[in-house]
Amino acid sequence: MSDSSEPRCPFLDPTAGAIHAEAAGLRVQGPAVLVELPGQVRAWSVTRHAVIQALTTDPRVSRDFRRHWPGVGEVPDGWVLGSVAFQDSLVNRYGDEHRRARGRIAPSFLPRRVKPMRPQVQATADRLVAALGALAPGERADLRGALARPLTMTLICDLFGVPEERRERLGHLIDRALDSSLAEDAALAVQNELYERLGELATYKRAHPGADLTTDLLLSDRPGEQPLAEHELVGTLFTMIAAGFETAVNLIASAALLVLTHPEQLAGLRAGRIDWTDVIEETLRVEGPVMYVPLRYALEDIDLGEGVVIAKGDPIMVGFAAAGRDPQEHPDRPDEFDPTRADKGHLAFGHGPHFCVGAPLARLEAEVALSTLFERLPELALAEPGRRPARLPSLIVNGPERVEVVPRPRTGGDRTRE
Hints:
The protein has 418 residues and is an alpha+beta fold. It has 17 helices and ten strands. The chain has one domain (19-417): CATH 1.10.630.10. A hairpin with a 3-residue loop joins β1 (33-37) and β2 (41-46). The termini are far apart.
């Protein structure tokens, strides 16, 4: 927490309206910059690629807030970043505890497990794109809401056995829980309802077990492994469902927007000079779907050089989406979308022990959704070319709020009949 006697430090804009410009300004100030988060919480912002790589593999850095954040008791109830920072989930364990916990989850997301999901992803994409194609000429649609969101929500809810009637509300609550512009009372209400809904899911799956990941978490068959406590289960469900949902939604929405605003790259796709893997990896570099994942904590003083020392117990905000635009890593036009560039290296799915286990699934969903969309709707165009869509009001996830398109432009005959 900060008080009026302490020197002022940069305040991260909770609406994230200019998140890349903000990160670029912090990057030039040093390897880490002390910033103020909503709720007057202070943390170190890290936006340099090399420093992020170093800290996310450093055993002196933990994600376990209960064990390693001395200031946690000073944070207000309803802290807007608490939905992620305060998840007592398997993912936020440290050291051997984390390795054991990851071993419980990761096998379900290995590439060999994900590859057989392609027909299911394709069938869902076919249905959603067909609905877009059935719109009247000139009618507008939001690609985020009409394709990216329902596709990814369907897949992640199928994996976790979420009943159909519970999905829409759960997706809404996850969106709201990641909105860092909420007031504390609104954030607390969202967090409480979200945990309640996830607890209800756990209760339902105990009574109706199935071939899904929620059942797997409830009924572990590993020798000597204890069942998860309720708060651990709820925290793990939120972390896994939210990460699987939001990462892919933002990847698909951002990639579609970037392709539609770069007609020369779209022409390259249609001519076969560029493939969708290039587009996806370059999107992950220039518009990573996750910005900051709050929080990490220093287990001892960490000297980063340039006069910057992160003190023991200090929280750290790692800016994954900023890493791909670091000119030290990508000196050639780091802010420009170019799928033909040779080096598309990024940290969009994290780095080190906490690397996102769902990365193969997100890539699969994006490749199927985007290829189906642009192949089936060759006349797809932005509804308002040149207008920059609003960004999600979140320090955690990164992407456009909407991607307004016209799947089938009006023809001359259509205009005459109006």
